[in-house]
Design brief:
Elements: E1 2-4, E2 15-17, H1 33-47, H2 52-68, E3 84-94, E4 97-106, E5 109-114, E6 123-126, E7 132-138, E8 141-148, E9 158-162, H3 165-179, H4 188-196, H5 202-212, H6 258-275, H7 280-293, E10 298-300, E11 303-305, H8 324-338, H9 353-360, H10 365-371, H11 386-395, H12 444-455, H13 458-471, H14 478-483, H15 505-518, H16 536-542, H17 558-561, H18 568-576, E12 583-588, E13 594-599, E14 605-610, E15 614-619, E16 624-630, E17 636-641, E18 647-652, E19 656-661, E20 666-672, E21 678-684, E22 687-692, E23 696-701, E24 716-722, E25 727-732, E26 738-743, E27 747-752, E28 757-763, E29 769-774, E30 780-785, E31 789-794, E32 800-805, E33 810-815, E34 819-824, E35 828-833, E36 838-844, E37 850-854, H19 858-861, E38 876-880, E39 893-897
Antiparallel strand pairs: 1-2, 3-4, 3-9, 4-5, 5-6, 7-8, 8-9, 10-11, 12-39, 13-14, 14-15, 15-16, 17-18, 18-19, 19-20, 21-22, 22-23, 23-24, 25-26, 26-27, 27-28, 29-30, 30-31, 31-32, 33-34, 34-35, 35-36, 37-38, 38-39
Helix pairs in contact: 1-2, 2-15, 4-5, 6-8, 7-8, 9-10
Amino acid sequence: MVYFIKEHNIVAPYKIERGTMEYVFELDVSGKVEDVVETLLQLHRASCLDKLGDQTAMITAILQSRLARTSFDKNRFQSVSEKLHMECKAEMVTPLVTNPGHACITDTTLYFQPLNGYPKPMVQITLHDIRRIYKRRHGLMPLGLEVFCTEDDLCSDVYLKFYERQDRDDLYFYIATYLEHHVAERTAEGYTLQWQRGLLSNYQYLLHLNTLADRSCNDLSQYPVFPWVVSDYSSSELDLSNPGTFRDLSKPVGALNKQRLERLLVRGLRFLMSEQPGSLGCLKLVSSRLRASIPGETEVSGRTLAPSALCPLPSFPCEFSCSPSAFLLTIQETRYQEMPEPKFMYGSHYSSPGYVLFYLVRIAPEYMLCLQNGRFDNADRMFNSIAETWKNCLDGATDFKELIPEFYGDDVSFLVNSLKLDLGKRQGGQMVDDVELPPWAQSPEDFLQKSRDALESDYVSEHLHEWIDLVFGYKQKGRDAVGAHNVFHPLTYEGGVDLNSTEDPDEKVAMLTQILEFGQTPKQLFVTPHPRRITPKFKRLFQPSSYNASTADSPVSPGEESFEDLTEESRTLAWSNITRLQLHEQHKIHKEAVTGIAVSRSGSSVFTTSQDSTLKMFSKESKMLQRSISFSNMALSSCLLLPGDATVVSSSWDNNVYFYSIAFGRRQDTLMGHDDAVSKICWHDNRLYSASWDSTVKVWSGVPAEMPGSRRHQFDLLAELEHDVSVDTISLSAASTLLASGTKEGTVTIWDLTAATGLHQIPCHSGTVCDTAFSPDSRHVLSAGEDGCLNVIDVQTGMLISSMTSDEPQRCFLWDGNSVLSGSQSGELLVWDLLGGKIRERIQGHTGKLSAADLPPPNLLFPPADVPFSSRKLPVCALCRGRSPPDPGWPGHLHRLG
């Protein structure tokens, strides 16, 4: 039997001829005839073996023998000065084909030399050109490595599969070490933060998630997957303002059609009746509701049954008031738990080589022919119409496929039969040609543009995180997947099977074939609910209703609140120039480590607390110390100014909070509220928030006495937020409805102050949490710890979405949601780019530990408009906390940077 492929250079179904025939082949390279004939005879002997596993084993042995007899041709090096680092056997992965050969890396270049010289004799990539590199699983085995020389392209420059995992890891380590000095590390959390902030489009974000989840254009079993987002393919106009236009992104395709899902559940109940007699009691409970919930006839196990036949039991009164659908979903979980292994809900996947080529048959017909033994699919099952395909995904018994990135790109070729392929004739007599578009699309270009508009629409931006939970997130596996009707065959999941432990060669080949052809579930990227995107609608929900005029009563941190009445342009200008800070003034005002700082509204006075037990008032205008107050012989831990700049509040290690009147120069009130040292205080709207080493955060209501000597005000305890260990820092959201606390064991807890309950508890540091603060929009919390990490937490989900590490602890910080100014253990001020995940600038301020920093009020950030911006200064007050020799970084120094 002979297959004629691409006869006369025309892409068409394979032509097959049977019988005895002779053919003459001419080789391009002379002297290789004997080698070719020997290899052909070996392959023929392999094909004659009875078992598929034995055939595969023999072919693998032939290939390994040829690889062992050859090596990389070092004459291919680009320079004689290149130094070889390593060489190993590998395969270059392309759609449906892997080419064996030799991989080689030098100090400048990555090479791959295919054994058969196809598609070209040598693939080479200069290390300096590499922008991204990812470890891959191929056939669910951790053996792949994919290299990109671009930032955002869908397709990579080379995809290699290794025979040994150690070879893959060694090559990755060498390239990653080189890139460490040239390219920033890419993580899912970093991309999430950029997407939330609007720096990445929905399309770009999904591409990055696919890439991180092992999806590749070179591997059709793991092709990038994108969601259906539009459900209206019949209207003449696409209304993106109507929620009804869109698909429900919280459900997998298999659960979008309620009736189909219920039919699947009934089918599962019939399975229980026949296979699990113990479930009979459960069936009694649902008997009457089954009859009422499934209209018309239902096909079960090949037979068509009326509703009355769905349950063989007598009519049983139902005591439950839930809806049939809700009751059936509960039964489905029971059905799933009682299923024999392997357990799954759907008989096909949402992404597989067959589905990918279904969409791409017009531009990749040869792949389709290769996959389907030389034939195109039946003409009526081809990709003929967008509307028909969507309808089949909703109604088909085994069709649950999602889309591919091309539906949201700009290349229309997959929709147009530009190759004039003969794809067959449909039952109605029409030939399969271009894809039929919905009425609202005027052309293929218009269809792609409107599809992209739909993907980037407000509705999708507000709900895309729900689909990410299903495909890349916490609803991909486990109980949450069962509850979301999102369980596929175990062979599709990473870790679902260990091929190396399978000894039977036939079983191993069958499993690998099923893995490669059935499709694979993406690598799980998130194990907690994915945060939603920040859109104008949700920004408004988190913004405070009014701006509080005081800097010191900032609910987050002094630097953030000071931005509230600035325009967006002013805020951007301020932080864009944060890297220009220089040491402006320095003053020695304390004998021990400084613990807190507050700047008056006018900017003329600076108040500081210290471990030397004193509160001091320093005049910026006269540059002189004006007051020094001691409340006890214990250290003071923090301070703040109340609205109006008339009262300073200080917390102390003696368990008390002290109120000091600036006008009268006396202590006016004392709050004895804790059983151990008070570590941090905040104030907002006549409420005091105090954190303590007694493992509590307390919320107090009350106004301190207006005049010293008058009757002290009774502070009322409104709430007590209990922790397991001592609390070292707290911060408030802009509207004072949320509070973040950090403990000595590295846990950050986000509290809902309206209900005095914890929302999330995130163990995100390996040591004490030094500082926390909400972003200006209250969507994120930033925390700094003794472990040197800066962590960004999503407030809504509690998900740790970004983490950056420095080589020393960061003791305090200010931030605007994108950039961070932090004070380090060594006394440096570091400017961080959170979205880029890197340090932008290092500013030397002290030689000892930095403990606190503050920005002045907004009216001091910029002088009058007639002053050139180049001469404007952004003052920052930073306090030194270290213990080092007498120099500008000596403990107790106040530095002013401009």
